[in-house]
Amino acid sequence: MKRRQDGVTLIEVMISTVVVSVGLLGVFQLHLVAKRSSYESFQYTQAHALATDIVERMRVNASQVAAYVSRDYGMGVFVPPARTCASFDFDHSLCAPAEIRQWDQYRWEEMLLGRDEQIDDRNVGSANAMRGCITAAKGEVEVVVSWRGMDETTDGALGGTAALCGVADARRRSVRIATRIVDSI
Length: 185
Known about the structure:
By secondary structure, the protein is α+β, with helices and mostly antiparallel strands. Helix content is 39%, strand content 18%. The strands form 2 sheets. It has a 4-stranded antiparallel beta sheet with strand order 1-4-5-6.
């Protein structure tokens, strides 16, 4: 007489445990890759927004474009200006163009350094090692924002002005905006 089996054997339980574990490891790895990619995209978006911000500040203060030129943004060299030119009603008549430029340079560097957001006296409002560079000649303006990404790839700023912005590194990423700004039409 044959005996009928009820339940599962130990070997079946072990095999199903291994199959489920391998599947869960794949899901966790996929989650990690997605988070890294999302963070890299966030850094790129943040750098692009910062580059666009300084371009728009320069458009408003076009007579001072040549004085915005520097490769030192994000190095902590711009000190707070003597006069604050922050106006919520966009009335810049209170400040001279040179004062507005000093204020713009200081604020942009503060954003590059991430000082707008802090946790326990640590700047956390920007990507790692974010730097800004501005060049201008005959109305042609180029703004480069570089930072250090999470993973090694090829240097993201080979050639041109972008190569001079930030530290050469296999993790360097960069955003470049080239535009034309004229003082008057």
